[in-house]
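[Q] Does anyone have a clean structure-token version of this?
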Amino acid sequence: MTTPIDGALSPTSDGSALRRAYSCFPTGVVAVCHQAGDQSIGLAASSFATVSLDPPLVSLCVQNESTTWPKLRIAPVLGVSVFAHDQDAECKQLAGAADRRFTGLDLETTADGALFIGGAVAQLSCTIYNEIPAGDHSLVLLKVNALRADPVQEPLVFHASTFRALERKKATTPQ
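[A] Here you go.
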């Protein structure tokens, strides 16, 4: 049986309804960073997704108004850190004021400048593969060149405008 929903849908021009709908989908939360000499540059992104195995690609979306992305865009390599379930404070700090983003954080860097947040569940050394304008954001495709990961650790998840941790579903036995 099909039930009509006439009038029950909100128009996309209603920004609060659109944000509420988008918040229904959980996303991974990452730091995207680069170390240039003694200057650490980075941002937090909550629109991270895997894209392809061949070539190895991941994606994220960056606001067009970002003042940090133009600095990262020209970096030869970017470090992507997938936050662990207990790193919500680090994520909030990285999303805050640029002059305090890295204060007191446990940081790791490669010789070529990929900057990572220590304790992250995965660390991906990436280069920009493509950047596509997408409304008020840019869709950024990153090619993964090297990585390390600990899938046993739980990641931080952004859902319904808050940080969450995953919970393993209990297996049910057939009766």
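[Q] Thanks! Anything notable?
[A] The helical segments are 15-22, 69-73, 88-94.
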